[in-house]
Amino acid sequence: MKQIIAIERVSRFIGLGFIFTLMDRLTGNLKTLDVSKLIKKTIIPLASILLFIGLWHLGAKALYNREANYKIEKTLEAQGIEAAEALRACINSGDISCQPNSLPAPGQVWDSYKSLIKDHNQISEDKAAFKVKTSEINAKRIANGESPITYTGRPSFIDQIIMSLKTVFAGFLLALCIAVPIGILIGLSPVLKNALNWFIQIFKPVSPVVWYLLVFMIVKTILIDSSEDSSFIISFISVGLCSMWATLVNTAMGVASVDKDYLNVAKVLKLGPVQKVFKVILPASLPLIFTGLKITLSVAWMVLIAIELLAQSPGLGSFVWEEFQNGANDSNSKIIVAMFVIGIIGFLLDRVMLTIQNSVSYNSN
């Protein structure tokens, strides 16, 4: 029973509460429900999902037929009717070697998802076997002060998701550590605000690609003698610099708009500058600060894919680019799987930030 309640809370948290509303209605647990409310909260969301899948399937089928006909016509012009009919028969047979490589249908995407999970399980088994195989050798190497032998095989899809999350959280923490202190200083000092306003307005709209190139120049120069891979460092610093501006601006606005009565109370209580910031200014500014942090996290997750692609850092961006370059028959469907994963994780990150904001904010709304 507790597990069902927990699942229901999670479902409502991520916006899928209509499923449990429908289940309650079908099982009779929900006896007094207005029909219009049932339609609005359950039927319409379900219908929109089914409509999306249906339109996707029809669109994919139309594109598939268009490319198939194009390939057959080109083969007819270049090689004659026998080759064209042979290609048509091959396409109709479902042979993967001659299938048109267009927008995948929902069923193909689901198959690719299962394939990626199966691939992850296989790689996990290989890692476990490698760890057992090298355990004795690594123990000796560590005892001799040498670095252990590590697994160098390709990462799985789940491994790349985890790497992307590590990169985005590192970038988010960097943005927080830079933007919040500077935002507080700017909000407290009109002189400092005027001095730095030009800097913010110029660098805030800079493209992630340009930030990546700038960070690449600096980090590569600093780590010129290092043999370690710097792609992760470049990636998370670029993500942090791209995404910090919303938090900086919102923090400055929140601090500058603190009620003057609160500041007068701080004077009466003879609070020091640090006490005034932590006991009065920050609590009063939290709603705007967290609004900026939500935007920062969303921007960080969006720019991460492009930056990982450029930095060749393991992650979802690298995965998408490698599948695009690969050009295999299931590459397109794997890219669509990654697209859904990126969207779902971005949505969940936003919900997590909203929950944290509600738990620490003094604003009852």
Looking at this protein, list some descriptive labels:
MetI-like fold, 0% strand, 365 residues, mainly alpha, globular, 14 helices, 2 domains, single chain
Can you characterise this structure?
- By secondary structure, the protein is mainly α.
- It folds into two domains: 2-98, no CATH class; 157-360, Orthogonal Bundle (MetI-like fold), CATH 1.10.3720.10.
- It is 81% helix and 0% strand.
- It has 14 helices and no strands.
- Helix 1 (2-13) packs across helix 2 (17-27).
- The longest helix has 45 residues, at 35-79.
- The protein is globular.
- The model has no long low-confidence stretch (mean pLDDT 82).
Summarize the structure.
This protein has 14 helices and no strands. With 365 residues, the protein is mainly α.
